[in-house]
């Protein structure tokens, strides 16, 4: 690795010889399952005449990204009979699940709730083998979906889009890829994910290291086997690091974990799914997706509004003990909502988890280091673990606290800390996260009306209308853009795609070729997003969810990256816009000035 082996535009690491990426974390839970994903009302005559209006353009619709967002978008566009194309940087579909192949990568939401709900046929035919699917199985599922819906023929891989310009004369989009090829369309759907641009730590010497250095999001083929008996160092202790650490600890010769901030984490309790159990789950799909549709952030786990502090201690603890024994996010989501808004309630629940963690770690000094002190339980995205804490009881594992004793530099052979210690390693793993949410957009030069740069528009704070559109960027729809729900991501994706597809269907029916958010719409929506976030402890804390990434060359202010209100409320507002026949937008038909 050399000093300049980052990609200039967005500080993307080139640790494994790959420059950044494209992809998606998965979507919705709106209205249960439906088979064909479209209202089926667009006549082929209307589609044909819409396509005729666009005949000077390569496509009616271009979609960037072949993760779950891009796959479902493409499906809906094909259903409408439109000329659409998916352009994908990776060599295959899958998005997040294509890129993140590090050891132990898996869902930490129940597999059967974290997938597409729109096709009964797919739900009928696909069997999950674990409650929390490992990455290889999830990728196989995504490939199965793409095959089943015959979508690969609409996808162009190894195509990294670098620039997206709105062409005012023709009210169209022009995309340019990294080989200089261009693609034009009337509408543009961005399906580029929220955790897609990996970042290396801003530590001096990162590029001086001479051993193997891998970012978890660019894990090399066969990498896990290469770790056997090696001295491995890992920087980071987020969700990704936790899965990696617990998976490799007993395979490597030694593991040194460089931790800046400990995270609260609790047991995942994964298990195999038998054939019989899968049949029960299949029968339960309508109920699963109904629960997701009705819940605050689209999960199957639902909390309550009890007063945590006022609840008698024994009753409270009994309830928490019960939740602790359950699978998945139960202990994160099926709790009282005041744990997320009230410092005292949160401190009580944090103390409960502190006890649980301490009981699993032999050395109290190590336990001290693993207990978060700068944020409460659940105020950052809570990773779930399987044997993570026990790893630190192993003789071959060392925890280095780099908050009190920072890394001074990366050397040719390993890591040098300010106390003068050198940690020489054969493989250095960067589990240092992503330039989240806006990073995916900043990796492409988005240029709207009058040359407006999206990077500049959001530089002063994210502004959107419905999290789906941006003023000055007409005809562009964002699937998993900022200001959307980041809870159960497949549920959010499904809804955003559904809303966008319904708009495009309406545009085709009405031969509408221009759609732009207004200043008033953006101001009101952005204000609403900020209002929803008020009082949430999570918004007082630094994390990728609040837009903080200290590794970026440019300073980034803490920002409201996601919609913090209830998902049903979000969808109601979007449906109201649809109900008003999209009159909240500036709309033009072909030929209108
Ligand atoms: P992350 O949560 O942002 O964690 C990055 C880690 O790297 C943090 O521990 C951070 O420390 C550390 N770090 C970053 N820069 C550093 C530096 N310069 N020096 C020292 N340490 C540094 O990233 P992630 O773990 O990849 O997870 C991101 C998100 O992906 C998760 O929150 C989750 O939403 C998603 N994810 C999901 C799954 C799943 O579904 N199962 C699995 C993995 C990830 P600080 O905290 O001090 O900054």
From TrEMBL:
Stored InterPro entries: FAD-binding_Monooxygenases, FAD/NAD-bd_sf, FAD/NAD-binding_dom
Keyword Magnesium: no
Domain named FAD/NAD(P)-binding: residues: 59-283
Skewed-composition ranges (Polar residues): 1-10
Superkingdom in the source lineage: Eukaryota
Sorted UniProt keywords: FAD, Flavoprotein, NADP, Oxidoreductase
Stretches for region Disordered: 1-46
Ranges of Low complexity composition bias in the record: 16-46
UniProt name for this protein: FAD/NAD(P)-binding domain-containing protein
Origin species: Sporothrix stenoceras
């Amino acid at each position: 690795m050399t000093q300049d082996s980052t990609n200039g535009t967005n500080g993307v690491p080139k640790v494994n010889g790959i420059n950044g990426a494209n992809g998606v974390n998965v979507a919705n839970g709106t209205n249960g399952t439906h088979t064909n994903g479209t209202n089926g009302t667009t006549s082929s005559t209307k589609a044909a005449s819409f396509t005729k209006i666009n005949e000077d353009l390569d496509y009616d619709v271009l979609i960037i990204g072949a993760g779950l967002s891009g796959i479902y978008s493409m499906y809906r566009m094909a259903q409408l009979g439109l000329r659409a194309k998916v352009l994908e940087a990776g060599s295959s579909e899958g998005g997040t699940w294509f890129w993140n192949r590090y050891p132990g990568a898996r869902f930490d939401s129940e597999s059967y709730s974290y997938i597409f709900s729109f096709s009964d046929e797919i739900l009928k035919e696909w069997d999950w083998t674990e409650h929390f699917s490992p990455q290889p199985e999830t990728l196989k599922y995504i490939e199965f979906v793409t095959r089943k819906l015959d979508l690969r023929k609409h996808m162009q891989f190894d195509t990294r889009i670098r620039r997206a310009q709105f062409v005012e004369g023709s009210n169209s989009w022009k995309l340019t890829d990294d080989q200089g090829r261009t693609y034009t369309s009337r509408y543009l759907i961005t399906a580029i994910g929220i955790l897609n641009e990996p970042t290396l730590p801003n530590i001096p010497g990162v590029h001086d290291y001479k051993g193997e250095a891998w970012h978890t999001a660019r894990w090399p083929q066969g990498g896990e086997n290469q770790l056997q008996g090696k001295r491995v160092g890992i920087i980071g202790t987020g969700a990704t690091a936790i899965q990696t650490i617990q998976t490799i600890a007993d395979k490597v010769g030694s593991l040194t974990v460089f931790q800046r901030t400990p995270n609260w984490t609790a047991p995942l309790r994964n298990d195999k799914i038998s054939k019989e159990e899968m049949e029960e789950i299949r029968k339960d799909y309508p109920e699963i997706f109904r629960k997701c549709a009705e819940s605050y952030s689209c999960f199957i786990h639902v909390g309550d509004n009890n007063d945590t502090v006022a609840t008698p201690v024994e009753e409270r603890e009994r309830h928490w003990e019960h939740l602790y024994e359950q699978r998945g996010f139960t202990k994160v989501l099926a709790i009282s909502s005041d744990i997320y808004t009230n410092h005292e309630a949160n401190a009580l629940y944090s103390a409960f988890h502190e006890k649980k963690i301490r009981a699993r770690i032999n050395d109290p000094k190590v336990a001290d280091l693993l207990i978060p002190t700068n944020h409460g339980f659940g105020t950052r995205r809570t990773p779930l673990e399987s044997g993570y804490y026990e790893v630190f009881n192993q003789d071959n594992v060392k925890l280095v606290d780099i908050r009190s004793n920072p890394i001074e530099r990366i050397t040719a052979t390993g890591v040098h800390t300010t106390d003068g210690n050198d940690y020489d390693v054969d493989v250095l793993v960067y589990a240092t996260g992503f330039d989240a949410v806006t990073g995916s957009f900043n990796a492409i030069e988005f240029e709207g009306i009058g040359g407006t740069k999206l990077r500049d528009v959001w530089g002063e704070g994210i502004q959107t209308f419905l999290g789906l559109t941006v003023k000055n960027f007409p005809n562009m729809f964002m699937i998993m853009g900022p200001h959307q729900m980041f809870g159960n991501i497949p549920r959010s994706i499904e809804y955003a795609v559904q809303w966008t597809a319904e708009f495009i269907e309406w545009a085709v029916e009405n031969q509408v070729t221009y759609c732009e958010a207004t200043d008033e719409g953006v101001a009101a929506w952005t204000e609403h997003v900020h209002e929803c976030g008020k009082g949430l402890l999570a918004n007082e804390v630094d994390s990728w969810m609040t837009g903080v990434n200290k590794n970026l060359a440019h300073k980034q202010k803490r920002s409201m990256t996601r919609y913090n209100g209830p998902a049903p409320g979000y969808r109601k507002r979007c449906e109201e816009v649809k109900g008003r026949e999209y009159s909240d937008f500036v709309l033009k038909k072909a030929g209108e000035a």
